[in-house]
């Protein structure tokens, strides 16, 4: 997607290998609100893994995604007079005409400068990426935790309910104590903890059957403390219902047809 194009409601952006799709959707069976989200393209049931305007729904289907003149990816109404959502970055570029938006096959939506980065898809070339702003799902390659260089704190927040992707009560956050650990919260109540980081890495099994492990890592330069997953094409999501479901955290492999 370039500055001369847009993605209106009813159209979508698909990653190169067809793994993920970005588009407009209405959640559940009863909601008519419209959201911009990401989901797996090759599985039969729509599994939304990221929502741009989760706390600011659109009431009709007249909106579109564009790259604005100030270099942001924005969700606007038809005549571009109302902004529903924005990447909200500041760029010092004199011209933003070389900016592009790409959906990568790991599910990362990125804004980058095509002219200056030689078509690089490395993280250092991104002006903005959705992986830095997770919703309720941790994808393989995504990190939860603190980037000490920027102060950015990445954490998961559950949907309010199946028909409403707005921020719910449950939060999965990496807490930086003397020994960092991931903790599930409901409001001010702790429901689950992974165990502290001791040394450079801490591992916790979250599904014995799949042998899936989450890891808490402290990189060698002590600039990143984060949690990730160790298998490809894996999703790790926080459900919104009940205490028992928090302990049985949703996790599954996205299988291709």
Q: Tally the helices: what do you get? A: 1
Proportion of residues in β-strands: 35-45%
Structural class: mainly beta
Q: Write out the strand line-up for the largest beta sheet, numbering strands in chain order.
A: 14-13-21-20-19
**Topology order in helix (H) and strand (E) letters:** EEEEEEEEEEEEEEEEEEEEEEHE
Number of E-type strands: 23
Biggest β-sheet strands, sense, barrel: 5 strands, antiparallel
Task: List the domain count as a whole number.
Answer: 2
Rg, please?
Answer: 18 Å
Share of helical residues: under 10%
Distance between the termini: 27 Å
CATH topology of the largest domain: Agglutinin, subunit A
CATH superfamily of the largest domain: Bulb-type lectin domain
From the spread of the alpha carbons, the general shape counts as globular
Question: Would you tell me the overall average pLDDT?
Answer: 77
CATH class (first level) name of the largest domain: Mainly Beta
**Low-confidence blocks of residues:** 197-223, 240-257
Question: What distinguishing features does this structure have?
Answer:
glycoprotein; 1 helix; kinase; mainly beta; Agglutinin, subunit A; 257 residues; lectin
Structure explained in plain terms:
The chain has one helix at residues 243-247, and strands at 7-8, 12-14, 20-25, 35-40, 48-51, 64-67, 73-76, 83-86, 99-103, 109-113, 126-129, 137-139, 144-147, 152-154, 156-161, 164-175, 181-186, 189-193, 201-207, 212-218, 224-229, 234-237, 250-253. The protein has 257 residues and is mainly β. The chain has 2 domains: 1-133, Agglutinin, subunit A (Orthogonal Prism), CATH 2.90.10.10; 136-257, Agglutinin, subunit A (Orthogonal Prism). A 5-stranded antiparallel sheet has the order 14-13-21-20-19, with no helix packed on it. The chain has a 4-stranded antiparallel sheet with strand order 1-6-7-8, with no helix packed on it. A 4-stranded antiparallel sheet has the order 2-3-4-5, with no helix packed on it. Strand 7 and strand 8 form a beta hairpin. It starts with 6 loop residues before the first strand and ends with a strand. Residues 197-223 and 240-257 have low confidence and may be disordered.
């Amino acid at each position: 997607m370039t500055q001369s194009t847009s993605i209106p409601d009813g159209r979508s952006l698909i990653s190169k290998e067809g793994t993920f799709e970005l588009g407009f959707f209405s959640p559940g069976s009863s909601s008519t609100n419209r959201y911009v989200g990401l989901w797996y393209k090759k599985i039969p049931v729509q599994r939304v893994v990221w929502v741009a305007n989760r706390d600011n729904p659109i009431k009709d289907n007249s909106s579109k995604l564009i790259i604005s003149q100030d270099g942001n990816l924005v969700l606007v109404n038809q005549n571009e007079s109302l902004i529903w959502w924005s990447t909200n970055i500041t760029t010092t570029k004199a011209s933003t005409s070389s900016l592009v938006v790409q959906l990568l096959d790991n599910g990362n939506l990125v804004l980058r400068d095509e002219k200056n980065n030689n078509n690089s898809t490395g993280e250092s070339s991104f002006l903005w990426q959705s992986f830095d702003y997770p919703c309720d799902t941790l994808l393989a390659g995504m990190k939860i935790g603190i980037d000490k260089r920027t102060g950015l704190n990445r954490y998961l927040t559950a949907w309010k309910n199946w028909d409403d992707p707005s921020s719910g009560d449950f939060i999965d956050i990496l807490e930086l104590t003397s020994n960092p650990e991931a903790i599930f919260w409901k409001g001010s109540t702790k429901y689950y903890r992974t165990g502290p980081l001791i040394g450079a890495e801490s591992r916790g099994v979250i599904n014995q059957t799949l042998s899936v492990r989450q890891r808490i890592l402290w990189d060698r330069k002590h600039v990143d403390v984060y949690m990730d997953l160790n298998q490809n094409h894996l999703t790790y999501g926080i459900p919104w219902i009940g205490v028992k479901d928090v302990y049985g955290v949703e996790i599954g492999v996205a299988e291709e047809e």
